[in-house]
């Protein structure tokens, strides 16, 4: 039998009874009327952008452009967006916000420096995404290999064990297999050509899971 879609409210004919059908499940309430509403919780995503020396020039500009388009769409989906840059060290640039102008200013100010300390960036994002039972995502944008693959995978596994989703987008010297290992699922790890790097970052907003909903009476 094909499952039903949507939510159906039915007045059963009894003054004190109402049934609610969600898919193929039906729930009945009898007695005094009850108030119930569904609310979408705020979700959180960190953009962890590679700012190592190899990103200098057009690649960083593409990363900035793609990140800002991504952020606009993430806002529309109920997300707040935070920003981390990582070169030789990770830098916490912006806590999750829905203030586009502030985020735009900070994204545009990012500059390249040093190597690729991806492990520290994931660790930092996980630390700031400490809101349990919330929808939380890290989007990693890079053009190469991390300074320490083992530590990077270790930090990614810790984040995923905490219920944080990871999306990875790489170009140039990034390794596709490694991107897939870091991601929550293989299909969330992508390597693209430099020509479509910006578009791939902005399109990652389509991979964001829907924010959790809560039922309140």
How are the elements arranged and paired?
Elements: E1 7-11, E2 17-22, E3 25-30, E4 37-40, E5 43-50, H1 58-76, E6 79-86, E7 90-97, H2 100-108, H3 118-128, E8 136-142, H4 149-161, E9 165-170, H5 176-182, E10 189-191, H6 197-203, E11 213-216
Parallel strand pairs: 5-6, 5-8, 8-9, 9-10
Antiparallel strand pairs: 1-2, 2-3, 4-11, 6-7
Helix pairs in contact: 1-2, 1-6, 3-4
Please tell me about this protein's structure.
Helix 1 runs antiparallel to helix 2 (100-108) and helix 1 runs parallel beside helix 6 (197-203). The model is unreliable at 1-12 (pLDDT under 50). This protein has helices at residues 58-76, 100-108, 118-128, 149-161, 176-182, 197-203, and strands at residues 7-11, 17-22, 25-30, 37-40, 43-50, 79-86, 90-97, 136-142, 165-170, 189-191, 213-216. Strand 9 (165-170), helix 5 and strand 10 form a beta-alpha-beta unit. 36% of the residues are buried. The protein folds into two domains: 7-34, no CATH class; 41-207, 3-Layer(aba) Sandwich (Rossmann fold), CATH 3.40.50.410. The chain starts with 6 loop residues before the first strand and ends with a strand. The chain has 217 residues and is α/β, with parallel strands linked by helices. It is globular, with a radius of gyration of 21 Å.
CATH architecture of the largest domain: 3-Layer(aba) Sandwich
Strand arrangement across the biggest beta sheet = 7-6-5-8-9-10
Approximate strand percentage: 25-35%
Radius of gyration: 21 Å
SS summary, helix count: 6
How many domains comprise the coordinates? 2
As for the CATH topology of the largest domain, it is Rossmann fold
* Total beta-strand segments: 11
* Helix content bin: 25-40%
How far from one another are the termini? 32 Å
The overall pLDDT average reads: 88
Structural class: alpha/beta
Low-confidence stretches: 1-12
Secondary-structure element pattern, one letter each: EEEEEHEEHHEHEHEHE
CATH superfamily heading of the largest domain:
von Willebrand factor, type A domain
Q: CATH top level of the largest domain?
A: Alpha Beta
Shape: globular
> Major β-sheet, in short?
6 strands, mixed
């Amino acid at each position: 039998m094909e499952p039903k879609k949507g939510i159906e409210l039915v007045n059963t004919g009894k003054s004190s009874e109402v049934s609610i059908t969600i898919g193929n499940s039906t729930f009945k309430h009898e007695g005094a009327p009850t108030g119930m509403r569904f609310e979408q919780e705020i979700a959180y995503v960190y953009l962890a952008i590679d700012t190592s020396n190899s990103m200098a020039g057009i690649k960083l500009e593409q990363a900035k452009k793609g990140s800002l388009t991504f952020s606009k769409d993430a806002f529309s989906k109920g997300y707040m967006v935070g920003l981390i840059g990582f070169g030789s060290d990770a830098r916490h640039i912006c806590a999750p916000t829905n203030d586009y102008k502030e985020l735009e200013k900070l994204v545009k100010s990012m500059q390249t420096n040093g190597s690729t300390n991806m492990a520290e960036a994931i660790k930092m994002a996980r630390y700031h995404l400490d809101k349990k039972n919330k929808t939380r995502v890290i989007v990693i944008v890079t053009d190469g290999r991390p300074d320490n693959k083992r530590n990077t995978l270790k930090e990614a596994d810790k984040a995923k064990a905490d219920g944080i989703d990871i999306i990875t987008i790489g170009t140039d010297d990034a390794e596709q297999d490694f991107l897939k290992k870091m991601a929550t699922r293989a299909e969330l790890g992508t390597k693209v050509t430099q020509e479509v790097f910006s578009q791939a970052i902005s399109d990652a907003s389509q991979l964001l899971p829907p924010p959790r909903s809560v039922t309140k009476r």
